[in-house]
């Protein structure tokens, strides 16, 4: 195969002699090799494993799917635990609300408030002007768990306040019960006052350190305040006598009884029967000799008798 090269500037020509196999080689390069490349690509596409779908890739995908499933299961379990915890917390809050209602009803009873004035079984009365739309637009409700925690803290404070209030009311009630007031008899009349008088047996002037209430033989002698019986028996001059300690340095004595209805160590309430009126000991007839002892010495019982029991 010959190639002629012409030179226009000089008018000369040149001939190149190519070997006979060169055209075939060029044909092979331009035609045969692209065909072979196409056949190889086709074979690779249909007969050689795609690396994107290899076993390793499939195992990695399966591992990722399993890990995600485990994460979902763990999240679900934690959600269930939190839900159970919230349910228990809500139950505890409800139980505490019931306790607060019961405590409130007890305080109403202790304080002597009428039931129709303060009813714990009814919903509390609420009211007030309607909030503006702007305030509602800026409002963001708290998270459910935070709301429960805040409610629990509020309940703790309310319980402490109600406990303190109940304690104060009970102390006030106990103090009122222990406060001396009224007469030591259910029926009868005052036959001798506190102070100097003529002694009924000797006829001379003598100090009478109590108050006498006469009445029917066998009538009731009652405690003038709550307290603990410290003596119940026969004592010289008093006959059958009951002594009650009311605390705060106060005691009372009830003498000349016909029969004693309490014994040492008993706890008595105001107005409770402690003895029957008689004439035991140094006495001229059925009556009760009533004394008030403050800080170890007898005082005039008249101011305590004149008190109106509340």
Task: Give an overview in words.
With 310 residues, the chain is of the alpha+beta class. It has three domains: 2-42, no CATH class; 70-119 and 143-178; 189-306, Glucose Permease (Domain IIA) (Distorted Sandwich). Helices cover 42% and strands 25% of the residues. The chain has five helices and 14 strands. Strands 3, 6, 7, 8, 9, 10, 11, 12, 13 and 14 form a ten-stranded antiparallel β-sheet that branches. It has a two-stranded antiparallel sheet with strand order 1-2. The protein has a two-stranded antiparallel ribbon with strand order 4-5. Strand 8 and strand 9 (239-247) form a beta hairpin. The longest helix is centred in the first third of the chain and has 57 residues, at 55-111. The protein is rod-shaped.
Most strands sheet: 10 strands, antiparallel
Q: In terms of quaternary structure, what is this? A: single chain
**Strand fraction band?**
25-35%
Tell me which CATH architecture of the largest domain applies here: Distorted Sandwich
Low-pLDDT runs: none
Total helix count?
Answer: 5
| Termini Cα gap | 143 Å
Q: Please report the total strand number as a whole number.
A: 14
Q: How do the helices and strands follow one another from N- to C-terminus?
A: EEHHHHEEEEEEEEEEEEH
**Quick check: average pLDDT?**
77
CATH superfamily of the largest domain: Glucose Permease (Domain IIA)
Q: How many domains comprise the coordinates?
A: 3
Radius of gyration: 54 Å
Helix content: 40-55%
Find the CATH topology of the largest domain.
Answer: Glucose Permease (Domain IIA)
Which overall shape is indicated by the principal axes computed on the Cα atoms?
A: rod-shaped
According to CATH, what is the class of the largest domain? Answer: Mainly Beta
Helical/strand content category: alpha+beta
């Amino acid at each position: 195969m010959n190639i002629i090269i012409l030179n226009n500037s000089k008018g000369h020509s040149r001939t190149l002699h190519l070997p006979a196999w060169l055209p075939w080689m060029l044909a092979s390069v331009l035609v045969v090799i692209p065909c072979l490349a196409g056949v190889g690509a086709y074979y690779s596409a249909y007969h050689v494993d795609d690396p994107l779908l290899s076993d390793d890739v499939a195992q990695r995908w399966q591992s990722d799917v399993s890990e995600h499933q485990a994460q979902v299961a763990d999240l679900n379990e934690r959600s269930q635990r939190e839900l159970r915890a919230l349910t228990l917390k809500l139950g505890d809050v409800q139980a505490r609300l019931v306790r607060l209602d019961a405590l409130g009803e007890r305080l109403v009873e202790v304080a002597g408030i009428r039931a129709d004035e303060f009813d714990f079984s009814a919903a509390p009365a609420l009211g007030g002007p309607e909030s503006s739309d702007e305030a509602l637009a800026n409002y963001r409700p708290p998270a459910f768990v935070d709301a429960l925690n805040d409610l629990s803290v509020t309940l703790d404070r309310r319980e402490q306040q109600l406990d303190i209030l109940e304690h104060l009311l009970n102390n006030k009630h106990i103090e009122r019960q222990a406060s001396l007031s009224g007469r030591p008899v259910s029926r009868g009349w005052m036959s001798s006052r506190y102070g100097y008088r003529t002694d009924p047996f000797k006829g001379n002037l003598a100090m009478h350190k109590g108050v006498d209430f006469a009445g029917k033989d066998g009538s009731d002698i009652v405690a003038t305040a709550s307290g603990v019986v410290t003596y119940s028996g026969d004592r010289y001059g008093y006959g059958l006598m009951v002594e009650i300690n009311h605390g705060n340095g106060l005691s009372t004595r009830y003498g000349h009884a016909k029969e004693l209805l309490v014994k040492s160590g008993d706890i008595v309430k105001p107005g409770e029967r402690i003895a029957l009126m008689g004439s035991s000991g140094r006495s001229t007839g059925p009556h009760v000799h009533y004394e008030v002892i403050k800080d170890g010495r007898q005082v005039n019982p008249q101011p305590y008798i004149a008190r109106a029991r509340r």
